[in-house]
Amino acid sequence: MDTTAYIFELLKIILPAVIVAGSVYLLIKQYFEKEQQRRLIELRLQSSKETLPIRLQAYERVTLLLERITPNNILVRLSSAGQTAPEFHRLLLQEIRAEFEHNLSQQLYMSPDAWDHVKQARENVLTMINKAYHALPSPQQARGTELAKRVLETLIAQEVDPTERALNVVKREAASLF
């Protein structure tokens, strides 16, 4: 047998084997890639099942925080009766800061944008209370009820609740989880 016939016979055997081996390799590679994608999807699904309730709870707590520091609610909750304006002012600021600090960890479950809105809402409320306090004719001699009245007047004059925007952002983000 001459060498060209030998090479031709060898190619008739090797070429189909290479084609079959290449096809098997591609099929196995595709199978493993799809299996890996399936496992990633399973992990993400499992993770979302575990984190979704935690995230929803965080949004609930932040919503409660914003509702509690809303001027209308905090003034009703913390009675100004029998207190001087400086005492009531200090109590309001202290309560807002305590509420915020109590919920600091919730930022882990929220977008940075939503958390920035929450921080801005807190600052807006603090600013509103501080401006109302300093707008009193003589803050050191004023009563706490006068400060509460001034804060409510400021709220009515602005026609916008300082926590409303943050509350809307938090609600919208929580709704997007579904």
Automatic annotation (TrEMBL):
<dbReference type="Pfam" id="PF25589">
    <property type="entry name" value="DUF7935"/>
</dbReference>
<keyword id="KW-0472">Membrane</keyword>
<keyword id="KW-0812">Transmembrane</keyword>
<protein>
    <submittedName>
        <fullName>Uncharacterized protein</fullName>
    </submittedName>
</protein>
<dbReference type="InterPro" id="IPR057695">
    <property type="entry name" value="DUF7935"/>
</dbReference>
<feature type="transmembrane region" description="Helical">
    <location>
        <begin position="6"/>
        <end position="28"/>
    </location>
</feature>
<keyword id="KW-1133">Transmembrane helix</keyword>
